[in-house]
Design goal:
This protein has 11 helices and 13 strands. The chain folds into 2 domains: about 1-90 and about 275-305, NAD(P)-binding Rossmann-like Domain (Rossmann fold, 3-Layer(aba) Sandwich), CATH 3.40.50; about 90-265, Rossmann fold, CATH 3.40.50.720. With about 300 residues, it is α/β, with parallel strands linked by helices. The protein has a 7-stranded parallel β-sheet. A 6-stranded mixed β-sheet has the order 2-1-3-4-5-13. Strand 10, helix 10 (about 230-235) and strand 11 form a beta-alpha-beta unit.
Length: about 300
């Protein structure tokens, strides 16, 4: 079986790929499988993978390590009838990133360090996560992992997805239409939704105006979900009280962007998925599906038109 893959990825898993022919870099390749890995996604060469998948005439399955499928070329694969699967390997890392950054802002870690350096014995009160109401917008693999960790601290969790149906790790569920009534009670609002027509510019003036004073908003989705001017205006008024931003409309964030120096903004430079286990989980996801593909079994994490 012929697999079109980045050479670095093929090298990592060369044992499990024994018996398969791995092709790299050839725009005229005729593979059975196209494996879009982080190397292609981050290295600027993803168009080659799409071109091969769409133009080869031989591609029977495409797997991407990307969770967010906002590129229109994924839709083109589906329209052509080419089976597509994706990975949620980033979810545990992103969930830990969210909890770590919220904790860093609710527990006086920096103040405690400063007191230690000053040899000052100083008791510091802090707010427990279990006293907080969390609102997670986008309750897929990533949102669910965030909720699981927040619940372990005793937090109350409300989730937002397309159906509003009950979900594990959520005390309540709703849809985007329910946001106005949920936002006013949320101490932590996490944006973990895919960027779609319905979610682009979601965090606008009305959204921000409905937020609770002193609340925390965390964006680990896409920058296009946030209207930056509206969020900054809200931060200046204290609602929300803090923004933890991992994704931006323009990346890298320009050096003169107002976010860099805003006292109520924590920037994490799109690093939320950079956990130590992400790459291992992502590779294993493909290998597990490869075995299923070879046996003619249903593939895990299939992408359909309803996924967008």
């Amino acid at each position: 079986m012929k697999i079109f893959a980045h050479p670095a990825a093929a090298s990592r898993v060369q044992g499990p790929l024994a018996g398969h022919e791995v092709i790299s870099g050839d725009k005229n390749a005729k593979p059975d499988i196209v494996w879009i890995t982080f190397e292609a996604l981050m290295g600027g060469g993803i168009d080659l993978f799409f071109d091969v998948a769409l133009n080869s005439g031989t591609t029977k399955w495409v797997h991407t390590q990307q969770t967010g499928l906002d590129s229109p070329r994924y839709r083109e694969l589906i329209a052509r009838g080419i089976p597509l699967t994706n990975s949620h390997a980033q979810a545990p890392a992103i969930a830990e990133h969210v909890l770590a950054n919220v904790l860093a802002e609710t527990y006086p870690i920096a103040a405690a360090r400063a007191a230690q350096e000053a040899h000052e014995w100083k008791r510091m009160p802090f707010r427990e996560l279990g006293d907080m109401q969390w609102l997670i917008i986008g309750f897929g693999a990533i949102g669910s992992e965030i909720a699981k960790r927040a619940k372990s601290f005793g937090a109350k969790v409300t989730g937002i997805n397309r159906s509003g149906k009950p979900a594990e790790f959520a005390d309540a569920m709703g849809t985007l239409a329910d946001l106005p009534k949920f936002l006013s009670a949320a101490d932590v609002v996490v944006i973990a939704a895919a960027q779609t027509e319905a979610t682009t510019d979601l965090v606008d003036g009305n959204f921000v105006a409905a937020m609770k004073p002193g609340s925390i908003i965390v964006n680990v989705a896409r920058g296009g979900l946030v209207v930056d001017e509206a969020l900054r205006a809200g931060l200046d008024k204290g609602a929300p009280g803090l923004a933890i931003l991992d994704a931006f409309r323009e990346e890298p964030l320009p050096a003169d962007d107002p976010y860099w120096s805003h006292p109520k903004v924590r920037i994490t430079s799109h690093t939320s998925s950079s956990g130590s286990g992400t790459l291992r989980r992502a590779d294993q996801c493909f290998l597990d599906n490869l075995k299923r593909f070879e046996r003619g079994e249903p593939l895990l994490s299939p992408v359909t038109e309803n996924s967008f």
